[in-house]
Amino acid sequence: MSDLFNIETSATFPPPRQFQETAHSALRDGLKAGHKNQLIMAPTGAGKTYLGLRIAHEALQRGKRALFVCDRITLINQTSEAADRYGLSDHGVIQSGHWRYDPQRLFQIASAQTLAHREHWPAADVIIIDEAHTQMRVWTEYIQRCRAAVVGLSATPFSPGLGKLFSNLINATTMHELTEAGVLVPMRVLSCTRMDMAGAATSGGEWTDKAAEERGMDIVGDVVTEWLRHASERKTIVFGSTIAHCEELCRQFVEMGVIAAVFTSRTSAAERDSLLQEYRKPDSALRVLISVEALAKGFDVPGVTCVSDCRPLRKSLSTAVQIWGRGLRASPETGKADCLLLDHSGNIVRFLDDFTDLYFKGLETLDAGQKLDKTARKEPEEKTLKACPACGYSPFARRCMSCGHEAEVSSLIEALPGEMTEIRIGKRKLADDSRHLWEQLVSYTRSRDKKPGYAAYLFKDLVGTFPPPGWAFDQTPDVPVSRNVANQIRHRNIAWANRRVA
After folding, report:
1. CA-closest candidate to residue 416, choices 231, 190, 187
2. Topology of domain 18-173, per CATH?
3. What is the CATH number assigned to the segment(s) 180-416?
4. For labeling, which of 68, 247, 323, 355 is most exposed (least CB within 10 Å)?
5. Residue 417 pLDDT exceeds 70
């Protein structure tokens, strides 16, 4: 078994990225060191399915049997289609009634739910467990007694007990590294109307579904209105607290003329297939999918450029990261430049410190992940929010995720003000919000026949940061330039001229 994971070239697999190559090497070294069960932590966009299928492919090339276990039926066809793209079309699918069922194939893609209803598992030399943090009983018991080499895959291995199932953690890469490499896009955060969770009922330290639903219902109209204002041109996933909350969100989106649909555990298999087939189209009429959990893990539509988080959480950083990650995957074919997070839950502030560390460092041990989901965070208003001393971005933890202060790195989150936050200098109002200010600066720059960079540097001088990458100069409309903005530009031009003379 010691050389089971040797890296071999495949004509149908794209060449691995460096971190994927390193993860394979670490996996091989771990197996040689006696680790039968190992877990790879790889953030959204790192290609967990690619890693898992490539491991299966290497086993097949040696005449071994491989089994890829999915934790949800939703992911069965997605994984099977990915296997086909990589040339692994000679596989069977273990799922009730699936047309691809063929137990004689050396490679099987299995539904964990189907395995749970069977007396025996299919023979396998290598088992790949997707979304291993879910710790479904059907496989947690089996992998401890089977002879197969087991590889768990997870973006958020935070659940307690993983250290008893896997003896080796391989931290493939970090969200920061993936953003730097262009695998992920920057996330821009807009703090919108937020549900008031003060005094809401809790159970085990987390807000109850009922409490989150009740508070969420109070701002459904705001969720729809602010999406129309900030993200109406973006393909979007909205996460609600309960199915009833999702259904009400959908109803109000539809009332406003937006083609939206609910995707939950109550959605039939046929309806799911139909919705996903339409939603994956680059020009899909379906603009908004609304879910509680069904779309939070492993769901991959790179064209998604907005996530609306309406599911308040106190403890589960892993769930929050899964939610935000649905829009971070890069999509060069669609020209995707960023992902807009509409934060109606307050989660981005509650989890800021821990998320910053996770973004830059990943996890060092499986126990570290477990601890992150144990502590109930304080409400944002209970915290004193600091601004980055380098760029002024708030909220700021130990390391700025806007300008990378202390590390000289680019951002994951680029700050935007909340709903209707005015831009002021002293007592003079310049604009309704940052976007309005940008539009005025672009209009002024055009009227003076100056280069686009002039508007960007004016924006940085006034606000403290450059405009987000998604705010393209040539796509920004002309608007009237207020007297206060024109005066501020004139004052700055004079100051710049004086500095040049000096």
Report:
1. 190
2. Rossmann fold (3.40.50)
3. 3.40.50.300
4. 247
5. no
